[in-house]
Each structure stands twice: as structure tokens, then as C-alpha cells.
Specification:
This protein is mainly alpha-helical. It has 14 helices and no strands.
């Protein structure tokens, strides 16, 4: 998408602020949770799969992702982490002046409220505990940008909020239980999506160090960051094989497609090593995440 001649607070400005490429990270955990629940529905007495509940989970995930993106855009600019002159990653709306700070504040309030409205009916399907989960998601959407990402804990939060919570809760809303297969699938999903954060932090390691943002890449170094990127993809597929191996052979082979793509992106990332060109790896990683979701979901349905 061309990022020039963007009018302040225009539709295009808001679309860029929402970061549509990151929505694969919101969709994939729900896709996997839905596939798991759909496959297991017949195993539970009188358990019928509810597509309305599945759609609500997806809408909540999308809305929370956009909300988190707005929060990140606003606070990183206010805290001086996003500098239009030195930033290597995709341009940000507040830093570029595409969206005014007051407008972004209102947008954050609006998307937070919409997420709460969308998520509230999930209490009907999954019980009152879903309200607690929703509150935790909203609170940590703010805490991630304002505190935890500066302490090197962003990767842990990705495992929790893009793996454990969305996969397990999507499953729980349908069947009111969680098993070891769901747990492994959620950890694997979190590892895959963490690759997106690793690319971001690998690209921004020098700027983050100067800004006092102690990401795991800043703490461990660039070479360890490269190995971490490779490792999360391999680890996710190994976890997947552990519960796909007794099903249809294609269920095991499909995620290998993701792993091949992930390795190619790793090699490109290693070759580029630094600078804005790493945004190519960012785009490829987002693509790989979505392909992983499709491969795993289809593989599960073939079990």
C-alpha cells in the first residue's frame, strides 16, 4: 500500500494505523481453536459446535488486535520510541502525523468498548469466566506497550495472548473443557506468532537499545535472535507432530509446508541482517503465520 500523500485522519490513515497485516496473528489462534473444537465436538455428550460463538471469538480477536495496534501506535510515539526519522519498520500513524493524538485517544476508547461489547456475549456460551478473560486481555493490551515490552517480556506475552488464551478459550467456549492437545496446539501457535515479534525486535535492536527498550534481542544479541527465530518455527512443528502423528498422514505433512517457508525466511533474514530491508521478512513472516493456521486447521480436520 502506498504511504504517501495521506490526509490526516483519513480512512487510509486509519487503515494503516489498524495494521491489517497483523490480523493474521489474531485470526490464526481462533482458526486452530475452532478446528480443534469442531473435531472434538462429537466426543462430548450432547456437544454441538456453535458457529455464532466461533464468529464472536474471531471478531473479539480482530477488535482486540486493532485496539492493541492503536495503543502501541499512540504510546510508542508519546514515549519517543517511534521516531519518524530513525524508524526502520513500517511507518506509524501518530509518528507520521497521519492521525492526531486526540483522535487516536478516542479511537482507543472506541475500539476497547467495541471489543467489550463483542466479547460480552461469550459469557453466555462459555460462562462468566469469559468476562474475566476479556478484562485481562484489555488490561494487558495497555500493559504490553507501556511496560512489559520494555522489560523483555513481550515474547512471553505473545505465547499467552496469541497462543494459550485465544486457542484454549475458543475451544472452551464450545466444549467447556481443555485437554492436553489444546494446550500443545496453543503453545505451538504462540511460538509461530512470536516469530513476528522476533523479526520486529531483530530489525529494531539498535534503536531499541538506545531507547532503553530491553527486548529479548537486545538482551541476547543479534545472533541469538536469529537462532530464536529459527527455533520457534521448528519447535512449533515438533509440538504439532506430537499430536498429529496418529491421524491422517497429510495432517503431519501439511505443517511441513510452513516449516519450509519459515526456514527460507530465516535464511533471508540472516542474509539481510539489518536495516529496513528486513521489512521483507516481516511481511513473509505474517504470510507464514497465516499458512501455518491453514495447514494446522486443515490437518486437524483430516484427523
Amino acid at each position: 500500500m502506498e504511504e504517501t500523500n495521506i490526509k490526516t485522519n483519513s480512512l487510509k490513515a486509519w487503515l494503516l494505523a489498524a495494521r491489517p497485516k497483523t490480523l493474521s496473528g489474531a485470526a490464526v489462534p481462533v482458526m486452530i481453536g475452532v478446528a480443534l473444537a469442531y473435531c472434538d465436538a462429537d466426543s462430548y455428550f450432547n456437544a454441538d459446535f456453535n458457529w455464532k460463538a466461533a464468529l464472536l471469538c474471531l471478531l473479539f480477536a480482530f477488535t482486540m488486535q486493532i485496539d492493541a495496534n492503536f495503543i502501541n501506535d499512540f504510546f510508542d510515539f508519546v514515549n519517543g520510541t517511534d521516531d519518524a526519522e530513525t524508524r526502520l519498520g513500517p511507518r506509524r500513524a501518530c509518528a507520521q502525523g497521519w492521525v492526531k493524538l486526540d483522535a487516536m485517544k478516542r479511537a482507543i476508547a472506541l475500539t476497547t468498548c467495541i471489543a467489550c461489547v463483542v466479547g460480552l456475549p461469550l459469557a453466555y456460551y462459555g460462562g462468566l469466566e469469559m468476562i474475566g478473560v476479556g478484562i485481562i486481555c484489555v488490561v494487558f493490551a495497555f500493559l504490553y506497550t507501556t511496560f512489559f515490552s520494555y522489560q523483555g517480556m513481550g515474547d512471553l506475552l505473545v505465547l499467552v495472548f496469541f497462543g494459550l488464551i485465544p486457542v484454549s478459550c475458543t475451544y472452551y467456549v464450545q466444549l467447556h473443557t481443555v485437554n492436553w492437545q489444546v494446550f500443545l496446539a496453543s503453545i505451538a501457535c504462540g511460538l509461530v506468532i512470536d516469530a513476528l515479534l522476533i523479526v520486529n525486535n531483530f530489525r529494531d535492536r539498535d534503536n531499541d537499545r538506545l531507547a532503553g527498550k530491553n527486548t529479548i534481542i537486545v538482551k541476547l544479541g543479534a545472533e541469538a535472535g536469529l537462532q530464536l527465530y529459527l527455533g520457534v518455527g521448528i519447535g512449533a512443528v515438533i509440538l504439532g507432530i506430537s499430536f498429529w502423528q496418529h491421524g491422517h498422514p497429510l495432517a503431519t505433512l501439511l505443517p511441513i509446508i510452513y516449516l519450509v517457508l519459515h526456514i527460507f525466511t530465516y535464511l533471508k533474514m540472516k542474509h539481510i541482517y539489518q536495516g529496513k530491508a528486513l521489512n521483507l521478512c516481516l511481511g513473509e513472516t505474517a504470510r507464514n503465520i497465516f499458512i501455518y493456521g491453514l495447514c494446522v486447521s486443515l490437518g486437524l480436520l483430516l484427523l
